[in-house]
Structure prediction request, 212 residues.
Amino acid sequence: MADSDRLALAEGDDAQLWSRGQFLRASAGLFVAGAASLWLRPQIVDAARAVFGSPVEHGLVHLYQYDFFFVPNYMTWRVGTPLTVRLHNMSTTRWHEWQMGRTIYLESSVLGVQTANAWKTDFWDGVHVTLSNVFGMDNFAPNEAIVTYIGPKGPYQIAPGGDFSPTLKPGGHVDISFVVPDKPGMWEYGCFIQSDVHYRLGMRGRVNILPA
Ligand SMILES: [Cu+2]
Prediction:
């Protein structure tokens, strides 16, 4: 408690001053808590992983996209395990995608600014993938994945080029089913919408793939 507050309390005749000071501090506290929940959530997920470990995923795996982070931001897969990743865009206002690979692809602009908008190695190259349960998908880039479509192809666009990536509208979801390919080691995922703004703000994660 600040001296001025103590004084106001002691005098008892200026309750308004005291409550104003208290209000200002409470507001600042709320602001900090709000900022912390926005910026620290990925770190909280990291901390939880450190304490509880990261179980090997199997069956249906939910992957949530928020502004601007993924939950979970760390997964453990095992080569040969059948998985369905159900990707949900939880944002009410923003489009988000999911690209997985290795080594950020940096692009120099005329201003000399390096923009990360893809991976040099696309995890999904040559992988058999089934797409189903599609709702609110804006576009889908299959790249070099071998894709089976269940249900109507559309109304989303199938985009040429780029890394394998589904892009979901706010509230959208899609199921991506596959058998974890023989590509063990650490892989990264991210959202590169708005160049690399989402990625830089923390919209990224890792998958540790264990050998069979
Ligand atoms: Cu995004």
Remarks:
- The first strand starts at residue 59 and ends at 66.
- Residues 56-210 form a domain with the Immunoglobulin-like fold (CATH 2.60.40.420).
- Residues 1-18 have pLDDT under 50 and may be disordered.
